[in-house]
Amino acid sequence: MSIAATGLKAELRRAERARKRRAFLLVLPLLLFLIVTFVIPIGDMLRRSVHDTELAGVWPRVAQQIGDWENRSRLPDEALFAALAADLAESRENRSLATAARRLNYAIDNGRSLVFGTARKLPDSAGSWKQAIIEAEPRWGDVELWGAVAQASGPLTGFYLLQALDLKRTAGGDIVSVPSNQAVYVDILLRTFTVSLVVTLLCLALGFPVAYLLATLPTRLANPLMILVLLPFWTSLLVRTAAWIVLLQEQGLVNEAMIWLGLIDQPVRLIYNRIGVYVAMTHVLLPFMILPLYAVMKGISPAYMRAATSLGASPTRAFVKVYLPLTAPGIAAGALLVFILALGYYITPALVGGAADQMISYFIAFYTSDTVNWGMAAALGAVLLTATLILYALYNRLSGSAGMRVG
C-alpha cells in the first residue's frame, strides 16, 4: 500500500512539473516581449543616467591624468595641462572638438565657447602648457572648472542625477543646491505630480456617477452608454487634443456658449494655460477611471443597500457607510491607473498648455531629440520612475493597512 502511495505521489509530482512547464512555455513569448520592449530599455535608460564616457572618448589623456589629481583644492599640475593641450590638438584635427564642447557645455557656463576658444588660441608648442593655456583662456585657472572636467571624465558620474534634483557637486566633492535662478527641475517634478493629482481627482469626481449609472441601469440602456464611454479609445489622441483646441479657443464653442448663457461678458482664456491642460487630460483619461469603477460596482449586490435601509439607515447614510466602502477597490485601481498614466503625458500638455504648464515628459523628449543630451533625459526619467515607484509602494502599504483594518 505504501509503495503504491509513493508511486502515486511521484506520478502526481511529475504531472505537476509537466503542467508548470507547459504553462511557462505558453507565457514565454509574452515574457520575452516584455524583456525586450520594457525591461531592457528601462535598464539602458537607468544606465545612461550614471554612465558617461562621452568626454573620455575624445579626451582620453585628460580622463587618464585627471584621476591622479589628488588635491582638488589646488590647480592640477603641468602633466594634466599638457594632456589637455594634446587632446585639444588631436580632437581639433579629427573634428571631434564639438563633442567635448557639447559635453562640457552641460556642466560649465559657456563651456562650448571655452573649448573652441582655447583650441583656437593654443600655440603649437610651449615651455609651460599650464601657463600657455591659462593665458589663452584665464578660466582654466579656476579650480571649480577643473572639478567639472573631472566629473565629466566618467565613466561613472552623478552629474545628471544631481542636476535633475537641482543639485551639484563642488570641486571639493560636496553636494550643494544650484543657484535659485538655475533650479528648475524640482519645480517641474512637483508640477507634474500636481497636474496628475488634480486630473485624477477630476476623473474620480466625474467618473464615479457615470460608473454608478452604468452599473444600476438595465442592460439594454447601459450597453449603448458604455459604447459612448469606449468611443474615445477609437479616436486618435492627437485628434481629441486638437478638438479641444478648437472648442476652448476665445472664439470657440465653449466661450460662445457661456456668453450666450450670460455667464461671462467677454471671452475668457481657456487654452494654452493650466485650465486647458486639466480639461483635455481629464477627457482623455476619464474612461480609465470609469471602467475599473464599473467593474467593481457591477459586482455589488443591491441587497446590501436594501438591507441597510431596512435597518433604519437613510439612503445617504447607507450609501456612505455601505456602498462607498465596497467601491474602494475600484476607486483605488482607477485612481492609480489614471495618476500613473497622467505622469507620463506629453502631447496633450504640449499642445493645449503654456510654457509654465509643461510636464517632465516634455523635457525628457526635449533632451532626447532636440539637444541629444541622453544623460539628462535618462536622469529625469530615472527620477520620475523612482518617484512613481515610491508613491506606488506607499499606496500599496496604505491600501494594505486599510484592508487589514476593514477585515
Give the helices and strands, then pairings.
Blueprint: H1 2-48, H2 54-58, H3 60-65, H4 78-93, H5 97-107, H6 111-121, H7 129-136, H8 143-152, H9 159-164, E1 167-169, E2 175-177, H10 185-216, H11 219-230, H12 237-248, H13 253-260, H14 274-298, H15 303-310, H16 315-326, H17 328-343, H18 347-352, H19 360-370, H20 374-406
Antiparallel strand pairs: 1-2
3D structure, described in words:
This protein has 20 helices and 2 strands. The protein has helices at residues 2-48, 54-58, 60-65, 78-93, 97-107, 111-121, 129-136, 143-152, 159-164, 185-216, 219-230, 237-248, 253-260, 274-298, 303-310, 315-326, 328-343, 347-352, 360-370, 374-406; strands spanning 167-169, 175-177. The protein has a two-stranded antiparallel ribbon with strand order 1-2.
Describe, in short, the structure shown:
The chain is built from 20 helices and 2 strands. It is mostly helical and 407 residues long.
**What's the overall geometry?**
extended
CATH architecture of the largest domain: Orthogonal Bundle
**What is the fold-level CATH name, i.e. the topology of the largest domain?**
MetI-like fold
Q: How can the largest sheet be summarized?
A: 2 strands, antiparallel
Series of H and E elements:
HHHHHHHHHEEHHHHHHHHHHH
Tally of separate helices: 20
Radius of gyration: 30 Å
What structural category characterises the helix and strand content? mainly alpha
Domain module count: 2
What is the average per-residue confidence, as pLDDT, rounded to a whole number?
A: 85
Family: Belongs to the binding-protein-dependent transport system permease family. CysTW subfamily.
GO cellular component, one term: plasma membrane
Protein name: Polyamine ABC transporter substrate-binding protein
Subcellular location: Cell membrane
